Amino acid sequence: MSTYLRIAGIEKESIVDGPGIRLTVFSQGCKHHCLGCHNPQTHSFEGGQIIDIENILDMIKKNPLLDGITFSGGDPFEQAESFAVLGGKVKAMGLNVMSYTGYTYEEILEGMDKRPEWKELLYVTDILVDGPFDINKKSMMLKFKGSSNQRIIDVKESLTSNEVVIFD
Fold it and tell me: What pLDDT is attached to residue 168?
């Protein structure tokens, strides 16, 4: 179990990366390379910096205004084991977890047999924004996502009902 993450950066208070006030962790490394990506500097798996998740937890403890944490990217599912550990600790603190990924919810479900760490991260995630960014479907009017093909999914409800439930 890894307690370190390779990150591109941290936004200590964000109101655009999910509901409420959030600490956002931008993971380093992404295989999707979406045309027009908002964070192309996060694509390389070699860049960024290494951080102990305890340092992130300390940041959270210092801010009682936070509603949750958001894992953005890059793609957190490329470091799913460590993000799952961090997510579990954040949930134990009473906060919610939101994850962005270029994979679809269905791809994650199908891939969990070969990548059990995906299951761990999915199961600590409350809200998932899935799918690659599509520049042809880009809109600045969309809440918490960049293109209309992406979905904001209520993970717990989706897992319970065995169908995608959109977060409202």
Answer: 84
Mind giving me the DSSP string for 84-129?
HHHHHHHHHTT-EEEEE-SS-HHHHHHHTTT-HHHHHHHHH-SEEE
Q: Retrieve residue 114's tokens.
A: 């070969």
- The 10 Å Cβ neighbour count of residue 116 is 12
Which stretches within the chain are classed as H helix? 53-61, 80-92, 105-111, 116-124, 155-161
Percent of the chain past pLDDT 90, that is, above it, reads 98
What's the chain's average pLDDT? 96
Question: Which class in CATH covers the domain with range 4-161?
Answer: alpha beta
pLDDT tens digits, residue range 49-73?
A: 999 999 999 999 999 999 999 999 9
Which tokens sit at 33? Answer: 């390379």
Longest Cα–Cα distance in the chain: 40
SS3 of 65, please?
coil
